[in-house]
Structures are given as structure tokens and as C-alpha cells.
Amino acid sequence: MSSSLEIKHLLGLQYVSANDIRIILDNAAEFRRVLDRKVKTLPTLRGVTVVNLFFENSTRTRISFELAEKRLSADIVNFAASGSSVQKGETLLDTLKNIEAMKIDVVVVRHKGTGVPKFLAQHTDAVILNAGDGSHEHPTQALLDIFTMESSLGDLKGKIVTIVGDVKHSRVARSNIWGLNALGARVRLCAPPTLMPRNMGMFPVELFGDVRKAVEGADAVIALRLQKERMDDSLLPSIREYRNFYGITRQTLEKAKKDVLIMHPGPINRGVELDSDIADGENSVILDQVTNGVAVRMSVLFLLSGGRA
């Protein structure tokens, strides 16, 4: 296990090589086997201090990172913007510098501002891991999605992955586009015109307006959450209309492959993005994504913080 990465931080997947992605995924496979053991804790990051710097609410990502850190025996410090000096007017950089003065090694950051992880990486000696920044990227989510796909589909070269939903606000979609393309997969995007960014034609993707055509022959379908907290009411006529035209239902999937993987980064708006019988059906790997997320984040933490195999 192991092998060194070209990158020093994980800020996104746009500029991460296929080789680095492969190293992360191969190490994640080893850690995934550890999670099935009776004793799941390793001494790998003993003595390494990780700060979880979350300026946005999060459940799955935060818990997954914390669990990954604990499985590797790291020392953990959790920071939440509410109740912190940020509320008193402290700048982001001052917050980082004060935390860094406490001799920390790794910062996992989630922030509503696009580019915050990159900004922090330019002003600290600590390793920066992006846990989601604005509508930019969410690299570990895409890596766990890719890991989950490979677990069922094998080599992704030539495989068709369809991403449906709120692409406009989705950092998950952007990271998946870069990661999947690096490994040779074909990426399709499908969304209402109001939820498809204007510049998507510049991305290495195929664009669709009809969800049934978008999923035709697909090997995997990723349904995205409608991020209602980031949009105004004018972007959709109604939730019911969205469900009727873009929801993933049995009718929607009629021309998809019979063993098509059904995925979702969570949380799911059931009956909107996915019908419950699809979300809980035999093709769903949504809970596998959650489990695999811990292994992938263990891998990233291990590789970037100089842990011991």
C-alpha cells in the first residue's frame, strides 16, 4: 500500500492526474478491507492533528471525515463557525493562523465561498483537504463515487455515467466530471435549462434536456439533490414539475441498462430526485457510497499527511 502523490493538498480534481486518482483509489481499497475487520482502528496517523474547519452545515461529510480520522488514530479538533471568533468579526485568515499556531498538521475545510481551500493552502504549511467549497468542487465525494462505481463496474474507461439534477449549484457534479474523465468514462449531464450553468459546453461532457435519453444505455446514474437553499423560486416552476420531468423513476430508467447503478450524494429528497423504490432498490448503491466514503477519506488523509502503512 501507499506510493506518493504529485499533489500536496486536495483542493479539487480538475488538476489531479489519473495516476494520483489511481493511487488514492488503490489505497482506499486496502482501507475498505480494514473497515470489515473486527478491529477497525490503525495507528497510521498517531501524533497527527487534524482540524475539521466547517463553516457550512454538514452531516455525512463531517461524520465521514471524523470517522476516517479516528480509524487512523489521528488527534481531532472540531471547529464550527457558530460560537467561534468568526462571529465576532475575525477574518478567515486570522482564524487559520491562530489554529496553525497550535501546531496542527491537516485542515479539512468546508466553506460556502468558492476558492477558500485554495486560499488557505497559499497561506499555511498545513495540508488542506477540500470538503466542499461553494459551487466549485467536492473532491472526496467524487472519489468515493468513482470508487463505488469501480467496485461494481470495474474499469470505467468507456463507461457512461449520467448526472441528473441541480448541476448549477453542484460541486459534486463538477468534481465527478473531472475525475471520471481522467479515468476515461463518458459523462452526461441532464438538468432543466435554469439549473444547467451556461458554461457547461466548455466541460468534457454531453448535455441532455430529456432525462430518458440521458440515461439510455447508462452504466450509472447519479441523481443530484435540489439545493433549494441556494436557489430562488424563479428557477423551477414547481417541485412537482421537476419530479415529473427529471425525477428518477422506473419509467425514467426503462432504456437504461438493467443493472444500472443508482447513486446519490445525499441527503435525498424522496419522491423528487428519486422515487423510494429506486433509492431502496436492488440497483441502489447509495449506502455503499456512505461506507466507501470513510475508506476514501482514510486514503486521502493517509497519503497527504505522511502516515505510516
Task: Provide a concise account of the structure shown.
The chain folds into two domains: 135 residues, Aspartate/ornithine carbamoyltransferase (Rossmann fold, 3-Layer(aba) Sandwich); 148 residues, Rossmann fold (3-Layer(aba) Sandwich).
Topology, element by element:
Elements: H1 18-34, E1 49-54, H2 60-71, E2 75-80, H3 92-100, E3 106-111, H4 116-121, E4 127-133, H5 139-153, E5 160-164, H6 171-182, E6 186-190, E7 206-208, H7 211-214, E8 220-223, H8 239-246, E9 261-263, H9 276-279, H10 286-304
Parallel strand pairs: 1-2, 1-3, 3-4, 5-6, 5-8, 6-7, 8-9
Helix pairs in contact: 1-5, 1-10, 2-10, 5-6, 5-10
* Proportion of strand residues: 5-15%
CATH architecture of the largest domain: 3-Layer(aba) Sandwich
| Number of H- or I-type helical stretches | 10
What is the name of the CATH class of the largest domain?
Alpha Beta
Measured as a percent range, the helix fraction is 25-40%
Largest sheet geometry:
5 strands, parallel
Order of SSEs, N→C?
HEHEHEHEHEHEEHEHEHH
Distance between the first and last residues' Cα: 7 Å
Strand order, biggest sheet? 7-6-5-8-9
Alpha-beta content class = alpha/beta
How many DSSP E strands? 9
Mean pLDDT: 92
CA-based gyration radius: 19 Å
Shape: globular
Q: Would you give an account of this structure?
A:
- It is built from ten helices and nine strands.
- It has two domains: 18-137 and 290-304, Rossmann fold, CATH 3.40.50.1370; 139-286, Aspartate/ornithine carbamoyltransferase (Rossmann fold), CATH 3.40.50.1370.
- It has a five-stranded parallel sheet. It has a four-stranded parallel sheet with strand order 2-1-3-4.
- Helix 2 links the parallel strand 1 and strand 2 (75-80).
- The protein has helices spanning 18-34, 60-71, 92-100, 116-121, 139-153, 171-182, 211-214, 239-246, 276-279, 286-304, and strands spanning 49-54, 75-80, 106-111, 127-133, 160-164, 186-190, 206-208, 220-223, 261-263.
- It has 309 residues and is α/β, with parallel strands linked by helices.
